[in-house]
Design brief:
alpha/beta, Rossmann fold, Alpha-Beta Plaits, 2 domains, ten-stranded mixed beta sheet, two-stranded antiparallel ribbon, binds iron/sulfur cluster
């Protein structure tokens, strides 16, 4: 099985639309499982108009629907001598001082330092529920999707959980492609999402901020030695910086796999809850997507 991860650096470049559209086109010749690792704002299921399916009907355990992907400290006050050593040692200012120490759960990083210094053993550090995992059925295959709870921070760990589950689902049905809708940025969730990837599909748009963020994510990918290619979305955007993007790619010897034109058929299709290649197959953007899917199919 091959694993392709779609990244962009900057959010809002059309990453999920491209992932969903590509999956729809590739599913004619390939068995695909999708993973949505944008755990702060998963939306691939919206693009593909999926229906949520009870996790228990696919997974072995019902509790896989909630995820414990981070550790937090808690205090047993009956054992606490109010020495406040835990407050002094916390580098994250996650313990408030009143007449007793109070852990602030949203800023606690679970480092365990307070547990180490506590003379009475009153502090415990253990896993807490910080997100959930969903399996969504769509017309092109299932999506394994993770969503972090509000205010939680262990997105890299949750991405790892999502990808492992997606690989298990793919193995169970003999899929030959795991297509991953990655998170924006270059932080922990991105690094977790590219682990074991065979190829990275980068989506960008002709704007200075998108090019800047593309450069950052390319540096990250190059560090890991994963091959990649670029898709320029809304390529002919009026006032756009297409020439700069093309120049950057040539300078860095990166392949431009496709240019998707700025096409009103795309938002029209999205508003109808459809993919552009389904709703408007003759649209210029649909034809560009078909060419891209053929290239990706050849690579596979
Ligand atoms: S586990 Fe670490 S971050 Fe959390 S309260 Fe203790 S020292 Fe602070
Ligand atoms: S270090 Fe332990 S005993 Fe001291 S205030 Fe913190 S929890 Fe209480």
């Amino acid at each position: 099985m091959k694993e392709i991860v779609v990244l962009s650096g900057k959010g809002g470049t059309g990453k999920s639309s491209l992932t969903g559209t590509l999956a729809s086109l590739l599913t004619e010749k390939h068995t695909i499982v999708l993973a949505d690792t944008d755990v702060d704002a998963p939306n691939l299921h919206l693009v593909l108009a999926g229906k949520e399916k009870e996790v228990s009907t696919i997974g072995k355990e019902k509790e896989v629907s909630t995820i414990k992907a981070s550790d937090k400290a808690s205090i047993e006050y009956d054992m606490c001598s109010r020495c406040m050593e835990c407050v002094d040692v916390c580098r994250f200012d996650s313990i408030l001082v009143t007449d007793q120490p109070i852990i602030i759960p949203h800023s606690c990083e679970g480092c365990g330092a307070c547990n180490l210094v506590c003379p009475t053993g009153a502090v415990q550090v253990g896993p807490v529920i910080n997100g959930c995992l969903r399996i969504v059925e769509t017309p092109v295959g299932i999506i394994v999707s993770g969503e972090l709870n509000i205010g939680e921070s262990s997105s890299g760990k949750l991405v790892e959980v999502v990808k492992n589950r997606a690989r298990a689902e793919a193995d169970s049905i003999g899929a030959d492609l795991l297509l991953v809708d990655g998170p924006p940025g270059i932080g922990c969730p991105v690094i977790a999402s590219v682990k074991k990837a065979d190829y990275i599909l980068l989506v960008t748009e002709p704007t200075p901020s998108a090019l800047h963020d593309l450069g950052r994510v390319i540096e990250t990918i190059v560090f890991f030695g994963i091959p990649c290619g670029v898709v320029l979305n809304r390529a002919d955007l009026p006032g756009g910086t297409r020439a700069e993007v093309v120049h950057y790619l040539q300078k860095n010897n990166l392949p431009l796999l496709a240019e998707i034109p700025y096409d009103l058929a795309m938002p029209m299709a999205l508003a109808e809850g459809e993919l552009v290649v389904k709703a408007y197959p003759q649209a210029i953007s649909s034809r560009a997507y078909v060419e891209l899917s053929q290239k990706v199919g050849e690579m596979l």
